[in-house]
């Protein structure tokens, strides 16, 4: 997760780092729980729940409906990977768990929920502005994940980690988009469609910028060179 990436680059004491990691995991767990509650609103399957209330015009478009339900019920699996893929203690003590969760994450993003999100992106509310944002996000998600997997196969562990950091930053857009949405509504009360167009980009662009900063900061550290030799 992004917090784990940040804490691996700080010079604070080990005790403080541990406390911050715990806090970060707690925040991720809480936001993931909220996402799970949203997901459970769609079970049992019905066409008037949550987000579908504003997508009634697309019901009956079979490929959109299939993509929607696939994305709803598989995207949580991608979020769950954050609890195993960036924790140093998992890499050290449970490398098999890291590998198997990583494989599930890659297959899910590249072959299941990523393609489903790309199909949905072409039907996003808010016109071309929102659609371009979600298309960019979906393609970027699939590409960064594919790159991370390819580099793992070639045992280029440091570059693998960097690309998976990028991939998970995009995964977290499911959470950050909603954080931005509620924050902007609370502060400014924008018109709904203006808000949707804005958070479509805010959901992932700041994540990408932050993770690129973290990657470049990590590359300047001597310890980063040792990461190339660390096999998960």
Helical fraction: over 70%
Major sheet attributes: none
Number of strands: 0
User: What is the element string, with H for helices and E for strands?
Assistant: HHHHHHHHHHHH
Number of helices: 12
Overview of the molecule:
The chain has twelve helices and no strands. The longest helix has 27 residues, at 14-40. It has one domain (2-227). With 232 residues, the chain is mainly alpha-helical. The model is unreliable at 225-230 (pLDDT under 50). The protein starts with a helix and ends in a 5-residue tail after the last helix. It has helices at residues 2-7, 14-40, 62-80, 82-85, 88-93, 95-121, 127-153, 157-171, 173-188, 192-202, 205-219, 223-227.
């Amino acid at each position: 997760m992004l917090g784990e990436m940040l804490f691996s680059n700080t010079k604070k004491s080990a005790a403080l780092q541990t406390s911050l990691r715990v806090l970060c995991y707690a925040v991720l767990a809480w936001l993931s729980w909220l996402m799970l509650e949203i997901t459970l609103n769609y079970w049992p399957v019905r066409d008037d729940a949550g987000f579908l209330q504003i997508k009634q015009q697309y019901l009956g478009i079979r490929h959109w409906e299939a993509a929607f339900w696939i994305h709803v019920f598989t995207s949580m699996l991608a979020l769950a990977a954050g609890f195993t893929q960036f924790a140093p203690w998992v890499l050290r003590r449970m490398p098999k768990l890291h590998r198997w969760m990583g494989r599930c994450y890659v297959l899910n993003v590249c072959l299941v929920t990523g393609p489903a999100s790309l199909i949905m992106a072409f039907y996003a509310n808010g016109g071309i502005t929102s659609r371009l944002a979600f298309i960019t996000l979906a393609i970027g998600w699939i590409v960064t994940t594919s790159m991370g997997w390819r580099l793992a196969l070639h045992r280029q562990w440091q570059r693998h980690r960097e690309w998976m950091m990028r991939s998970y930053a995009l995964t977290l857009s499911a959470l950050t988009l909603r954080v931005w949405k509620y924050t902007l509504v609370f502060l400014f009360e924008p018109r709904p469609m203006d808000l949707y167009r804005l958070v479509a980009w805010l959901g992932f662009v700041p994540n990408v910028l932050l993770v690129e900063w973290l990657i470049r900061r990590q590359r300047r550290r001597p310890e980063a060179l040792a990461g190339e030799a660390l096999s998960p």
